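Structure tokens please, single chain.
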Amino acid sequence: MIMKQAIIHIGLSNPKSPLNVASVMRAAGNYRVDRVVYTGERYPRALQRNPTIPKLSRKVSKDIPLAQVECLIAAADRLPIVCVELAENAIALPEYQHPQNALYIFGPEDGTLEQGIIDRADAVVYIPTVGCMNLAATVNVLLYDRLAKSRQAIDHNELIRQSRDTNNTVKLR
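Here you go.
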């Protein structure tokens, strides 16, 4: 079992795709994020236009709050701000050491973070891929990197038992 001690928030700058936000929520549940916030009107408008978006987040994220905020910087609530952006002079994710607590801010699917947010960040990291990744994929990679680099003790078999669905009972012998 994972014993959660860190405070981890995700900030989404003006997301547009309800499917991406649902996938971010699923990642937030899988990696035990405490809160997801977003700015802008595109996501709520898209939900109004298509309220029958498939539910991708599943029960793993049902207790994680998702809230619209005016300003991602103000939502940091004294957490270190880590922007994830393809920005010149950013730190490559494999070389980055995550702070214990953080607000990770991600840009929109079809744009970039505002310079003012970048300027206020404690760190700016990028994922060294050829081209840019989808928003939800970027969130998953960042959160996996954080987990992989953590020194948290995990009872792996207990985590597997808690995580798999009822159709999976396979064991290695």
